[in-house]
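Design request, tokens follow.
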């Protein structure tokens, strides 16, 4: 059984709004809440409860006027990505985009795609997994991902969708203009909203590898690889 831990929640009796500070170990809050620190308007509590009790979709969010959740492009997979004109830098999510969620399995076609993209763009991986580890454990995880995919991992302890995570990624990329940076992710909240808040120039949402019904034959990860599976 999963436990849900919320750092703080409170209700405003004047306008019946609910605000949340999100614990990033709480899946339902993570998917449904709008983050107070990001400067987003609070959700009406009725809308909040509707989102919590149902599947979160971009269409549902847009129905309530939440345009920050709209990507520029929908794709089934990163394999379909073609870099638009004016984009010089690329931020990639890890879980659900490069590897199935919660696991670390290399997919040959995706590894080749990342290699191709890194030859024509500056590419980094930005994952919330780096905020789960500390000190030597965190550094070991980062080195392993960099070895497997051949691109830098942003050493962020700031979780997406907070703006600071994307700002650090842009700094690692050497991007002076956020309009030249693209983001590819599978999460409406963490990736799409976060990229919008940071002012990135192109935002792509892909179907999560854990949910798209495609079965890949993974490459064997070296036996000394750090275990990245979640309990």
């Amino acid at each position: 059984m999963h436990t849900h831990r919320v750092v703080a929640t409170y209700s405003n009796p004047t306008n019946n709004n609910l605000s949340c500070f999100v614990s990033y170990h709480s899946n339902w809050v993570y998917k449904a809440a709008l983050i107070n620190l990001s400067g987003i308007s609070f959700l009406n509590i009725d809308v909040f409860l509707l989102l919590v009790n149902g599947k979160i979709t971009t269409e549902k969010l847009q129905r309530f006027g939440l345009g920050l959740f709209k990507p520029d492009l929908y794709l089934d997979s990163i394999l379909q990505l073609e870099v638009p004109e004016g984009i010089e830098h690329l931020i990639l999510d890890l879980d659900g985009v490069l590897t199935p969620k919660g696991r670390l399995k290399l997919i040959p076609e995706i590894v080749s795609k990342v290699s191709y993209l890194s030859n024509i763009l500056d590419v980094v991986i930005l994952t919330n997994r780096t905020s789960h580890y500390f000190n030597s454990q965190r550094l070991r995880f980062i080195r392993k991902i960099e070895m497997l995919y051949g691109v830098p991992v942003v050493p962020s302890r700031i979780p997406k969708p907070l703006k600071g995570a994307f700002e650090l990624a842009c700094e690692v990329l050497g991007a002076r203009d956020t309009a030249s940076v693209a983001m590819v992710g599978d999460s409406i909240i963490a990736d799409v909203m976060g990229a919008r808040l940071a002012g990135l120039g192109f935002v792509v949402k892909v179907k999560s590898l854990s949910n798209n019904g495609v079965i890949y034959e993974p490459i064997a990860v070296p036996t000394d690889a750090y275990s990245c599976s979640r309990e």
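Comment from the thread starter after seeing the answer: thanks! Residues 135-149 form the longest helix (15 residues).
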